Amino acid sequence: MDTKNEQVNNGNSKTKKVLTYLAGFCDNTSIHGFRFLAERRRLVLEKIWWSVILCGCFYVCAKLIISTLKKRDENPIFISSSQHPMYLWDVPFPAIIVCSEIMVKQGMYNASYYFDKLVTKNLTDEEYSLKS
Where, by residue number, does the polypeptide cross the bilayer (predicted)? Predict the structure, then answer.
């Protein structure tokens, strides 16, 4: 008999711990609406109202996420900076990615020097050095 009473009490203490934890979470979270579930001065009807509202919000969010995942599976798209979605196979290959944060040592290869030399082919090295 004693073991059965201990199991009932142990179950009640676990439930109390979980409820205390949930109340603490609701009191301290920044998610709007949860605070109203844990406040002691709220009416039971008001807590039920907030529970319904929160459940409705979670339901709508879940539906939107599921529909977005289904859409992505049916039509994989690549979103570019042009603000218009396009199919992945419509992206011209090879794609070029410009990364301006990678610095190149000027001493290794000076593209401006060679470009200028190409454009101004008629200048000799001496004339080119005077130009700079």
Answer: 48-66, 86-104
